[in-house]
Amino acid sequence: MGGAAGGGETEGLTTMRYIEPHGHMVSRTTDDYQAMVTAGCQAVCEPAFWAGFDRGSAAGFRDYFRQLTEYEPARAAKFLLPHYSWLCLNPKESEDLGLAREVLALIPEFLGRPNVLGIGEIGLNRNTRNELRILEEHVDLAVRHDQLILVHTPHLEDKLKGTRLILDLLRGHAGVRPGRVIIDHVEEHTIQQVLDAGFWAGITLYPDSKSSPPRAVDMLEICGRERIWLNSACDWGVSDPLAVPKTALEMRRRGHSEDFVDAVLFRNPVRFLSQCPKFTVRAEPAA
Amino acid sequence: MVDHGFVPVRAKLIEVAAFLDRVERYAVADDFRCAALRRAAALLVDGRPARARRILEQLSDPTTRPDAVSTGKAALGAWAGRPAAAKRKA
User: Fold this and answer.
1) Could you tell me the residue range of the domain that residue A73 belongs to?
2) Residues B38-49 pLDDT 10s
3) Is any Cβ of chain A less than 8 angstroms from the Cβ of B33?
4) What is the CATH number of the domain that holds A98?
5) What ipTM, to 2 d.p.?
């Protein structure tokens, strides 16, 4: 790789750098950490999410937040990989308003932890009234504590309606600054409205749903590369923790420059995440 | 572009065709998701651009108000319409 701004080249060996801005590493193995670092990952960011079952108590969430802020960063550090986290109650668990508010009350005590970047991934799941109420309370919390926001948009047939409801809520909130909010899992039918409203957009690369590497590069070519990041959202489901670096191959096949690859895979997420002073990876050209 | 992309996409198109044949053989082709897939497939050959966006829109819930309560079930990939209109088979 010979790009002036990205990666590095040592005796003909191509290297690249990228950020995994959305990976649920608590559900991955140490082999995945090793593979990601080998592929050039410079930092991984882990939003709070659904465990695959509804947690039964606020104490269960407290343990999970400790895992995200204490144990998982230590596990990543064994592979020399900086680990950051986002905290929230996932929208799937918002129907129980009582439990949701107990969990919301827990979050502030964790916001000062050194690897916490903000509130996320909040959002909607089935676009219900209770989900919207808890989303709004999460946004209030983020604004009160001057936190970055990471938003999950719903799955499949619910994504278009959910994205519109989320945009309406965020645009109607006086304290929200769009440049400090990323709306994730966009696809062809939602990306432009997210960007037009001034928010960042995340494209998730999944084998069977959301986006594929070719479709992600199509969206970059059509919508431009500003305010967009790519992520694998790897978790316990069908997903690929190396989906982001693999997408670099699709960019190169189409003739995009190494600077383009570096901008999308590394400099863009660094630019957004550096709005939190705790994110210390910097976008200087690689040595 | 075509050299690299054609064979993988050809395979996916044949998968779609075989799936539509299969659901007919199993007599479940009137499931609302299969009907949605047939309607979406028609957009592939209408000669207009933005096919991916338009197919995603066609498979989406077009309503605008939040639902009163969650069904507790996962999304299915196509909009079932009003509950009474949804016809789901195996």
Assistant:
1) 20-273
2) 999 999 999 999
3) no
4) 3.20.20.140
5) 0.90
